[in-house]
Amino acid sequence: MRNTKPVRSATGRLLAGVALLAAGTPAIADEDEIKQLSKPESSGRVGLGYLTDDDRRGGQYNGLSDQKGYLLLDLDYNRRVDETGTWYRASARNLGLDNRELRGEYERQGNWRGFIDFSQIPRNEPLIPNTGLTGIGDPAQTINGTAPRNVFLDTRRDRFGLGFDKELSPALGFKVRYTHETKTGARMFGRGTGDFLTDPIDYRTQQLEATLGYQTEKYQLLGGYYGTLFNNKNKVLDVNTGVDIALPPSNDSHQLFLNGGYNFSPATRANFKAAYTRMRQNETFFTAPDFPGNTQTSLNGRMDVTQLQAGITSRASRELTLLANIRYEDRDDKTPRVQFLTPSAGRDGFNTPFSRTTTSAKGEAAYLLPSGIKLIGGLDWEKRKRSTLPVRQASWREENDETTLRFEARRSISETLNGALTLSFANRGGSDFLPANNNVANDLVDPVHFADRKRSKMRLSLDWLPLPALQVQTLLDFAKDDYDTRTLGPETGKATALALDANYTLSDAWQLYGFASYDDNKIDQSTQTSANGTLIPAQNWKAHLRNKGLAYGLGVRGQPMSKLELGADVQWGRDTNVHGVEAIVPPEALLPDIHSQRTTLRFYSNYTLQKNLTLRFDLIYDRFKTNDWTWTNFTYVDGTTVGNPNTNSTFLGVSLVYRMW
């Protein structure tokens, strides 16, 4: 944690030590500070921790999920050979946990650097299925192969990396990075029959990036290659009932890129980016196509992506700054269109290549008025063009375009108050809608990302220093969407967010800080449904969806005595999801609200036993509560249910931290 005593700069501490030595005054503390500045610090931490209850949600990614004891072990080694400018660095984090990290590095300053690292990233599924499925985590699974029991799903990534940097000359540098990652485990899965399954994950992902950079006072160029290779060892999920299921296919991508900049003058700079990527997927099908005469054994998928960008920024005068930028992206799907399946209702049996082109431009001007107000005006434009699908399940739009006008004003209102107000107005339209060609009713609905929309946004920010010891920051965001739908689809949307942060220095030794935030997001939309038995008639109906969030926190940190440092904070948050349905339905069919609430308390203390040895104590209390009925009241066709448990856990940790220089 950060010390709350007044901060002294490195230069200030060094000069203070020199002054005391010159005066002949004992300066043991400052000699230690000078030693810390002149030599790199190495440290180690060892301790024990205990989690009082199972908490798969709180420990979803940090490795603290099971009720048991944990080893707390961190190492950090730094050594510099002054004669040669050589650095040796090694670090190890969380060695006793499932999210451990290790890194070793060797560097010759001004010449070259190399490193190797390893990390593990766990993910524990907080939902707990109760199922009779067997073969979990394997590509062959049997529905109700055993009596129902609780199963705990998780995945783990093991990531190994290498890196090398070389300065070929003062202006020319080379870098290469390689990463190999394995991901194993199982996660929740299913299929259209309503049966519960698990996705057996056994992935291998490789990434390689190599860059060559050239830099002078006027020119900056960076070019290189970036490639990925993904391999899924499990090609198909074999289930004892029904047809088999294809799993994510192996694929690869290769990109060449060049970025650059040119300084025309100290006031004017231009930049550009260019990249070409080829992505391929050519995994062999696990079963032959069922369309007679088609012998193609894979999709032979290919996507070519071209990206271009150019921009210029110029400070035309002391008061005026101008900016212009244009960007182009073409995602060209070159996968051949082939008939793999026999036609049936709603499909023609062909695969559907999908291409998209996006062009955008931005212009901006900023002007500083004599009154100290800085005015910023901008105009943004974007156009998207998509492939026309031959088989459309709903209304389709080949083109969308959107224009946004932005205004901003910034001013130092007084010596203690700064503020900014931003307004933007956007209008989205596009080409005529293409009708759904297999369902007349679906042709009435405008999908939300296609529909005509007018969007207004406002942001107000204030930075206030009412007292020398008190700093307050506030932020207010408001947005409104109005959709011009033909018959059905989205209608209006609103979003409001308010945030407040404060920091108060009680004394040289104590500091208070806190925050509060509120957000409220709504959207109204209409749709149409057919009759569902005798309970729900065919009708047009509306949904008034709403998500509200409220959170606040308060913390304190301080140093009641020279050897003791304390810190504590409490955070509370609550989310509410409302499914307001305006329709003719029985009361028992209405969807209740979902509430989720979380409370977290953290406390730590550091006690200095001697100048290089510290005793640390940590306490973390975490409580989560929800009434999420989307899982707790849902039953799969095979009888599987899923628990979404409330959790209440406490973590206690005691460790020793040793430092050396």
UniProtKB/TrEMBL annotation:
Classification lineage: Bacteria, Pseudomonadati, Pseudomonadota, Betaproteobacteria, Burkholderiales
InterPro entries reported for this sequence: Beta-barrel_TonB_sf (IPR036942), Decahaem-assoc_OM_MtrB/PioB (IPR020016)
Organism: Ramlibacter monticola
UniProt subcellular location: Cell outer membrane
Pfam families tied to this protein: MtrB_PioB
Stated name of the protein: MtrB/PioB family decaheme-associated outer membrane protein
Entry GO terms, CC: cell outer membrane
Keyword Transferase assigned: no
Keywords: Cell outer membrane, Membrane, Signal
UniProt superkingdom: Bacteria
Signal peptide (from-to): 1-29
